[in-house]
Amino acid sequence: MAGFSGHAVIPSLARDMAEPERFDSMINWAFFVATLIYGIVGAGGYFMFGRDVSDEISVDLMKIPEYNQTLNKIAVWMLVISPLTKFALCTRPLNVTIEIMLGIDQCHVPSLSIEQPPSPSRKQQVHIDIIPSHHAREQRNKILRAVERISLALAVVTVAILFPEFGVVMAFLGAFSAFMLCVIGPICAKAALNKKLEVLDASLLVIAIAMAGAGTWVAFTTGTGA
């Protein structure tokens, strides 16, 4: 479900789109393509290795010397590069939230009041007073944003180094958090917007809550998430 748990970045994507009105079409196509790719790869792994296929098909490919080792290495390096391409996108909502809390988010030039239009001389004076201070503040905020984003990335790397095998955390993320982001959250948001909860949505919500609860219980009781 990891490929479908990107709902946290959807508001940022919608805000940054050049044509936000095409968001619905874009997100439908994105999930369609993701589902198609996941289905093809999953089916290929099952047909090649049956029920013994690993969570990562690259692990199985590397175990079989008959396969082209060059292609195997390319597949492994693609897996290494993939998180790097997603990191900035996935951490953007968190970065934006932290920047807003710290008051270093990107700001715009203050607009003049339209209630009492200033005279041309007054308008020019206000422009002279506002623009330099705005640019100076934005330059300072730009430096602080760079420091904040680098610090967050270093914090993530530090946690990964200190806790290289946090199976319980990963099991919790896969059980509770993934269901919360992929199923429970979107259904609750839809119900809140429509002011009603349909039968199908209610059924999916109950199933998702049950599966999330069961997965979370197994993760913390077994200590491995297995």
UniProtKB/TrEMBL annotation:
State if Transmembrane helix is listed as a keyword: yes
Query: Quick one: a GO cellular component term?
Result: vacuolar membrane
Q: Which domain of life is it from?
A: Eukaryota
Transmembrane spans: 26-49, 146-163, 169-187, 199-220
- Molecular function per GO: L-amino acid transmembrane transporter activity
What does the UniProt entry say about where the protein is found? Answer: Membrane
Which parts of the sequence belong to the Amino acid transporter transmembrane domain?
3-196
Keywords for this protein:
Amino-acid transport, Membrane, Transmembrane, Transmembrane helix, Transport
Kindly give the membrane topology term recorded for this protein: Multi-pass membrane protein
> Its family?
Belongs to the amino acid/polyamine transporter 2 family.
Record's protein name: Amino acid transporter transmembrane domain-containing protein
